[in-house]
Every structure is written in structure tokens, then in C-alpha cells.
Amino acid sequence: MKRRRFIGEAGCAAIGTTTLFNTLANLFMTNTIAAERHQFSSDYKALVCFFLSGGNDSYNMLVPRSTDAYNEYATTRFDLALSQSSLLPINPITAGNADYGIHPSLTDIQTLFENENLAFVANVGTMIEPIEDSTDYYSGLKDLPLGLYSHADQQQQWQTSVPQSREAVGWGGKVADIMQSMNSYQGISMNISLAGKNVFQSGNTVLEYAIKNSGNGAEGITPIQYYDNQGFLNLIRNAAITDFMSQTYSNVFQQTFASQTSNAIEAQQIFSAAIANVPAFATQFSNHYMSRNMEMIAKVIAARTQLGMSRQTFFVDLGGWDMHNEVLNSQDFLFGVVNDAISEFYTVLEELGVENDVTTFSVSEFGRTLTSNGQGSDHAWGGHQFVVGGAVNGKEIYGEYPALYLDNNPLNVSNRGVLIPRTSTDEYFAELALWFGLDSSDLQVVFPNITEFYSPGSPNYPIGFLQ
After folding, report:
1. Domain containing 281: what range?
2. Contact, 90 vs 366, CB < 8 A?
3. For residue 4, is it within any domain?
4. Which three-class secondary structure state does DSSP give residue 217?
5. Is the pLDDT of residue 351 over 90?
6. What's the pLDDT tens digit per position in 88-147?
7. Does 146 reside within a domain?
8. Number of H helices and number of E strands within the chain?
């Protein structure tokens, strides 16, 4: 089999990966779809997956402010509740009589929301089929996600949107399998990661190309550093590697290794040269590694023409959200990191004139319990997400914001306040994939459960937060 690309990943880019296959049938199917439906395109679109790993307690990210709803929130959350006066007010266009606020560290997120460039999607979670209420949940007649409250399972399922199994193929990878041919240069993957190997971008034939947030980004085989005659000795070394890799080998594994190593070196050189040619941004990024990650993504986007890219996905990961204690102090810091990284990135997209072509979306493996454990909150199910971009129908809260009381709440399945999602990850991700350019007839290839929540033939997007 002939590999179409090779991954670069910290320190061992040329030799560190293998292609993932579910089945030969899946491989044949995705390749056929790619050949028939997706050819090189001159327009540009990018998706940026902003992973908040650990389980974001998003009921402190998006909070009701109207008196009765806030009192309900404060009573249930108790020592985890933010003060009503500290909440940054937002004014959704179609919220009716409800008032909402966001965490006080999200000052620039508030501005993006009010400027109609950011939206929230309420109470999203992994689902195999719709579950209407707690009676449905406990009936034993509904299929529940595998390992529902497990970090490992739910992180994987948020990246695959296949909650009934432990798949190694992500929905971003499946999309790239189908759409990679839209890029004119095939030597570098459509999927770029600043968090190393991940499930989201792992397809049947396409894997992520892992980069770093410093220098020119590309990882790969680097010259041995000699103190004397460095340039001369490096020339000899590089010539020797090139000669070694250009040989024809009878053993298929030797030949594949040589070809992949040669391709990796070429990709590294092309990628590094493209990033080196990007002019400095007027926008200043903060020093936190997440801001530096977003700055590197902006550089890759700025170099899209030189890299021959018309479609790209990006993946970043901010950990630390598993807050079984110190929720309030920890959220003050981490939401500040999110606020800076997202706002700086959007500002530089405006500087580049591509704010309408790039959509950033948050994911986190689950929401958390409404009630306190005395120090923090614990693993739960449905939670809130945000979507940012010029193509976003912003200043809205999509989905159904749940009631936050415990007793007789039809969505609550625990005395701790574990809420059934009202919007599935399938709906959330399918909207992003359709905007990205995936044909609606291919949705079931990427999201096997999508017809439980949405008709792929519909003229409307599943949720409506994109245009």
C-alpha cells in the first residue's frame, strides 16, 4: 500500500507512526468518495478544535442572570456559585426574557459574543440515540455511551462521535480521508496538531502532522550539531541520508521506510520555509503556551497558499479542567488563558482577512455535577461549548439551556446534578463538517449515528450556528 503522507512528531518525525485502518472496506469507501466528490478547491476553510481536557465545569462558564434562574443556580451550586454581580452580561438576540452572563475572566469572549462573532451551544454531550428524560435513561431501553463518566472513554468519543465503541479513528480524520485531495500539495496532511498525536485527526489514510509552537513549527530529522566545520559535516551527513533513502529496496518495509523518511524530510523543509516567510503579525500574543499555539496556527494559515492548502484542521489541547477541588480559583486562571488565546487568534485572523474562513470550536469530554463535593465538582454528562468565527451566527445561545434545580428535574439523573444532554455531539460536529465542505451524503460515513438526530438531506444545518 502506498502512503500519501507522513507525520512529523516531536523528535522522531520520520520514523514514529503507522497508518491506522479500520477495515479494507472503509479504506476503499473513503478513497472512492474522495476521488468522486472532492477535487482541488481554490477557496479556503479551516476548523480549529480547542480541547479543554479534563471536563470543563461549563455551568460556571455560561450562567443564568435573571433573578429566579440565578437563585436556582446559586442554591444548587452552593459554594461553587459565582456571585451575580461578577458575571459579565451578554445579550443573546433571541433569548426571550432570559438573562445570561459569562465567567468574569472571559472579558474578550464577551466582546466577541456581543459583536456576533461567537455563540454558545448549550447542554451538548455524547449520545447514541435521543434520551428524553430520566425515565428514558433508567428504562434500560436506551443505549448509553460506553464508559459514560470515564475521562478516557469520553475524551475518545468526543473526538470520534461514535459513543458505542472505542474507535481509534476520529471524525476529523475521516473528513480528511474524504477531502485531503482538495489540497494541491499532498506531502503535508490537512490535519495539523499542536498537541502531538490525537484521535480527532487520525483517519484511515490521513494522520495528523504534529508541529511545535516555536521556531518554524516543523519537527523532523535535524542535523547533528558539530562545534567545528558544522556546515561541511552537515552537508556530508544530509547527502548520506539522501543517498540512503533514494536506494531501491526489495523488501517492502525497507522501501516504505525509505520513502516515508524521504517524504518527511521534504515536507519538513517545505513547511519550515513557508512559515519562515510569514511576516510578523501586528497582533501581540501572550506568553502562555496556548496563545503561542494559536499564534503558530495563524502562521500556518498565513502560509496556506505556499503550502498548497485549501482545507485544514487544527488541534490544540489545554489541560487542567478536572477540578475536583479549587474550582473557583482554577477557573479564574484557566478561563483567562482561554479568553486571551481565543481573542488574540481572532484578532490576527481579522488582520489576515480570513476571519470568515476559520471556525474555532471548543470540546471537553463532559460537563460536571451541578452540586459541590465540598471542594469542587465531579464527572457528569451534558455541558456547554463555544464556537467562534466570522461565519458564526453569533450573539446566540443554541440548543436548550437546562433548568438547574435537582428535585423533579426531568434531565437530572443523579442526586448530584448530572444532566442528560439535549444536543448530541453528532449534531454539533456535523454542522462544522458541512460548513467545512463535507457533502451531506457523506455524513453517515463520518457520523454513523447522525440519522438519530438529523436528516442528512435537510436544507438546514443541524443546529444553525453557522452560515
Report:
1. 24-452
2. no
3. no
4. coil
5. yes
6. 999 999 977 689 999 999 999 999 999 999 999 999 999 999 999 999 999 999 999 999
7. yes
8. 13, 12
C-alpha cell read off for 233:
559535516
What is the CA 217 to chain-centroid distance, rounded? Answer: 19
Sheet holding 88-90: strands in order across? Answer: 62-64, 100-102, 88-90
Residue 461 lies in a domain: no
Evaluate whether residue 466 is within a structural domain: no
SS3 content of the chain, % helix, strand, coil (to 5): 40, 15, 50
CA distance 381 to 358: 28
Contact 34, 179 (CB under 8 A): yes
Q: Which residues contact 211 (CB under 8 A, 6 or more apart)?
A: 8, 192, 193, 194, 217, 218, 219, 271, 296, 300
The CB density around residue 280, as the number of other CB atoms within 10 Å, is 6
**Cβ atoms of residues 179 and 203 within 8 Å:** no
> CA 140, CA 452: separation in Å to the nearest integer?
18
Cβ contacts of 274 within 8 Å, gap of 6 or more: 303, 306, 307
Looking at the structure of the chain, the number of domains it has is 1
Question: What is the C-alpha to C-alpha distance for residues 128 and 425, in angstroms, rounded to an integer?
Answer: 10
pLDDT at 36: 56
Question: Residue 326: left (phi > 0), alpha (psi -120 to 50), or beta?
Answer: left
Which stretch of DSSP H or E encloses residue 192?
strand 191-193
Q: What is the pLDDT of residues 27-67, one digit of tens each?
A: 545 555 554 566 667 899 999 999 999 999 999 999 999 99
Run of H or E including 424: strand 423-424
**Helix 289-302 with 252-276: angle, nearest 10 deg:** 90
The three-class DSSP label of residue 384 is strand
pLDDT at 3: 38
The rounded distance, in Å, linking the Cα atoms of 465 and 130 is: 21
C-alpha cell at 242: 539522501
